[in-house]
Amino acid sequence: MLRPIRSRLLLASAGGLACVGELPDQSLIEDTRILGIRAVPDDPQRGAARAQFFGGDQVRLQTLIVDPEGPVDADRVEVYWLACPLGPALPLYRCLAEAVPVELDAIPPCPQGPTQDPISLPAPCTLGTELAPRWTLPSLTEVAQGFSVELTLVLAHGDMSASQCARALLRGDYDTPEGCEYATGELGLASPGPAAMLNEHPRVGTVAATLWSGSDEVLSVVELVDGGSLSRGDATSIELVVQPPDDDRQAYVVPVNGGESFQDATETLRVQWLRTAGDFGDFGGPMGGGGGGGGGLGGDALATTWSPGDESTAMLHLLLRDERSGTSWASIEITR
Amino acid sequence: MSSPAPDPRWARLVGVGLWLVVGRAYAAPVDEPGASPVEPDADPSDRPSASPPVDDSTFAPAEPPPIPDGLIPPTLQSPMSVQYPEGLAAGPSSPEGEVEVAFVIGIDGVTKDIEVTRRLHDELDRIAVEAVTQARYSPATFDGGAVEIETSVTFRFTPPPAPPLPTPQEQEPVVEVADDAPSPVPTGPVRIRGVALEGGSRQPIPSMRVVAIPGEGLPLGRVRRRESRRWSETQGEPTWTLEATTDQEGAFELAGVPDGRILLIFISPGFDRLEYAVQLTPSTLVEGKYYATRLDNNPYRTVVVAPQERPAEITRREITTEELTRIPGTQGDPLKGLQNFPGMARTPFGIGQLIIRGAAPGDSAVYLGGHELPTLFHFGGLQSVFNADMIASAAYVPSNFDSPYGDATGGLVDITPKTPRRDGFHGYVDADLYDASALVQGPVGRGSFAVAARRSYVDGVLRGFDAVPLAPRYWDYQGLFEHPVGPGVLGVRLLGSDDQFVALSDLGEGFEFTSAFHRADLYYRQKVGKWSLYASPSFSYVTETQGTSGEDSYNTSTRLEGKYRHDDHFDLLFGTETRAGAARLTLMSAVGGGFGPPGGGSSQNAISETTVPYVTPALYATGTIRWGAARPATVSPSVRMTAYATPMGQVTVDPRLNAKWDVAPKWSLKAGVGLYSQAPEFVELDETFGNPDLSPEHSVQSSLGARWQLPYDMSVEVTGFYKYLWDIVVDSDRLVERGGQTVPQRWANTGIGHSYGAELLFRRDFSKNLYGWLAYTLSRTQLRERDAQPLQLAPFDQTHILNLVAGYKLPRNWNMGLRFRLTSGNPTTPLANGIYDSTTGSYTPFAAPELSGRLPAFHQLDLRVDKTWTLRLIRIMAYLDIQNLYNAQNAEFLLSSYDYEQSVRLTSLPFFPSLGLRLDF
């Protein structure tokens, strides 16, 4: 028992001495990709930013799908939605991974609408092929056990169909076909209680863009919102600062080890930047290895610097996460 | 005058008497071939004799006693020969006469109870005893049964005539014996007195021949070889010569030396010739210290192989530190050198973990001084945590280790620390591109001490490599103190180590990993008659952090051991090893209940602390039984009982059996089988983070090996092994009932495994200029986590492991070594695609058949060259250690792209030369 160091030391030190080779940069959009999935109330009157729901709530699933040109329209892709009950503290995709292999045709549709008595959610079930489907949540028995719903989006582009991509996933293939993208997200469930305790998606708010000249002079400062556009002119770099509303960092209670104890916690907001051209500044971070585009802590200035390339236009996408299941995003076009 | 070098002169066994001992005071003089009086020209093949015969030898034959009926006398298996030492032969008064040695020939044919019954000279007495010690007989039999025989031999030592010295034509200095010898120089008062010492180590050189001749025209002081050659060409034969021989303290005196410039010539086997010019003025006495250079110079020379009185462990590979430190690619670290033996898998980046016969690194134990070390190597595996100069021996036992060692289902490395030197103050300073270290040792009263320390700076060197994000930084220290107390020896040992990774670029920022330990041992050992006792308590503090997680443990270990050696046929080793302590764990706990192990994928974790106390006493015993004479066999049954009292409350009883049989004089067989147990890790046993219901892991190990001793100090060893493991702790997603509650199981004893293979070791010992070995292992290790799963390769399985190590001692204290390695690549899991997690922005790979792929084969050539200069008081070694001489681009890991669609190979360390300098004093 006096040997605390096992293979983890082996791998840790090996990784430390490794010389990292060339790999694609995650922050550069070079093909069709899914960047965001989330569930929001279908009725904005019920709290537009809610990320946690009761049985009977009608939710709408939203996506951010992009390619090098920008956000992708619904008519250019096919999708397939799956849902699966996810146990507490389990990582996303665990539920579906344990269900495969399974025939696509054997998967039932997810139950809709409030029920008299709580029911179990089939693992998995289908939510259809619309890009932004609506789902009226049933009352689920798993809510009391701290379960949530694991959402899986199957995306087909190019010559592939959504059903082909879904079948490959459900067969348990680890080498899935070209033209298939997969993403998973979380739909939080809540036991009946005070609405103030519900998790919410953080809001992007505005993005302050400061345009810098090559001689380190500020050319202009512009505030942008989702879908906004910016002409960079002679700017050689643009400093981008995400400014979420001050009260979007929620406080919450964390049950530790099965409710043995509880801890108070406050959300940490993190931003991930992606781009179709140009380059971001160095963010650092622990052993990222080809990631980039992420930084910022504690809801303070969530800043990055973007340097344009030779392209005349570029799309910048940002994803804001609260390290629970809350996610928001925004896209900005930058022209010469 | 030119003459060949003098032939070695041989003393001769001239008389033998035998008395029979058969359990009662019956004594009858007997005659047998080895005991008969030896005629000078008798055939030496069947009796102890000397060869070649000495012309002027005389002998006094013992009266051969009659042989009782039924007695067949013992037969000497090879001639017993001794050589008259050159040092004594060169002296002015070489002793001549007989040495009689009495001894007993056991029923196994081995000599024992050896005693000199007639003395002549310390050196000659010692030579005679050594010859008897090495002699082997076919045992005597009486009425068909083997019996012990008491006997004696008499050696007659006759010095050879004074040898003529080399001539100027042979490029040797002019030191010839005048034709009209004896020397015309009259005897008189002592004029030159001195001490011959070994340069660098300052140890006295006994039996060194000191010749004095006239040296007019030479400068005072040490005479260089070229200078001596030029001078000798202008000289005729010396008009006189005087000679002396150094005593055990290296001291000598020359009397009756005339005034004037005198050339002193120091000659001894194994030492470079030393010439020194002194000036004698009337009525003066010249005193001085003279430093000769050992021809085979090595700072590790004093390190010897540990005693062979061990149980018959099936494969216990022991090697001198000197040999191991010369292995290329090990940076002079003997413990890294052990990794080149069969059964030891190659570790990625040479990081120095012990992966023995496919076992995970944590499944093999490292003992030092009877207590376990938490780790053997510093981060990066660049050096071991214990100073090489403090190691008496390092043994590697890949399986079937003996009962004093436990809590490991894999193999063993057993390090025996060295007693610090008492012959003055010594030490070294060493620096290379990796680190710098220093050591000082010497006497304290009747005891001795040693202190050493090392500090790395390789992180500074690696800053020049842009692509390296992290580098190790480490330091360690050791302190030893031994002192006689009563009839025994009391010792204190302190050692510690500290490691961390430092970021060299932004990529490495935030990667926090530290590890350290500090340990203090107290020990007492004593011999009382046939008993050897050893008692040692030890206390250690071990800490390790990884990010916000960590483990701090306070540990005690107490070993009480006794050994009773009844006779050559039986000894018994028994003792206790009790470990106790507590580990404080700081871990990221799973939030919201948690099914899997802590930190297992949830992005929502919290920090928690817990403490795991443990108490693990163990009892062990090993009996070693040896029998047979010409075909000695050894059997070592042993048992180790371990009470995993806290927290598991379980007891394991591990019986083990090892056996060795010398089938023929140069053939031996070894076999072993035994049970081995090991506790789960602290975190796995914790009530909060783990599963307190876990049991120890187990393995049954079996091995069968054969060894063939070849001519020219070569040997071949073949070993087959099979190991079955069960109750391996693996992670679990199950929910279980514990204490009336449904809780995550987290870990379970559901894993099993197999490991089997064969090993070949072809080795040439370090005794000659060319040394090294070829080690090849063919093996397979498979594991299964749960019943429903198929067996799959273990993460560290390497089908083929080939290590070729060769070194050559070159003239002028140059050494060169090469190491070539060719091994199978490690198993790897093929990854091709993944699913994007929108809550984190990262991808999760799709499950692929685990470890179903394999990295390309690894091959690498390393080179080491060193050169030693010996000065009066110090010795300097410069060395160049080049790793990956031809810059092979070996894949160590596959690094995947963010979405797992692409991968690149992380290659092993590139061509990396390390230049170092070591100064010994």
Report on the structure:
The complex is a heterodimer of chains A (336) and B (921). By secondary structure, chain A is mainly beta. Chain A is 8% helix and 38% strand. Chain A contains 3 helices and 21 strands. In chain A, the strands form 5 sheets. Chain A has a 5-stranded mixed beta sheet with strand order 2-9-8-5-6. In chain A, strands 11-10-13-19-17 form a 5-stranded antiparallel beta sheet, with no helix packed on it. The longest helix of chain A has 11 residues, at 7-17. Mean pLDDT of chain A is 83; it is low at 4-21 and 283-301. Chain B is 5% helix and 51% strand.
Radius of gyration of chain B: 32 Å
Oligomeric state of this protein = heterodimer
User: How much of the polypeptide of chain B forms β-strand, as a percent range?
Assistant: over 45%
Largest sheet of chain B: 22 strands, antiparallel, barrel
Instruction: Please summarize the sheet with the most strands of chain A.
Output: 5 strands, mixed
**What is the overall silhouette of chain B?**
globular
The whole-angstrom Rg of chain A is: 22 Å
Class per helix and strand makeup of chain A: mainly beta
Distance between the termini of chain A: 63 Å
Distance between the termini of chain B: 41 Å
Identify the overall geometry of chain A: globular
Tally the beta strands of chain B: 50
Number of strands of chain A: 21
Q: Helix tally of chain B? A: 7
Question: Can you give keywords for this protein?
Answer:
heterodimer, A: 336 residues, mainly beta, 5-stranded mixed β-sheet, 5-stranded antiparallel β-sheet, 21 strands, globular, B: 921 residues, 22-stranded antiparallel beta barrel, 6-stranded antiparallel β-sheet, 5% helix, disordered N terminus
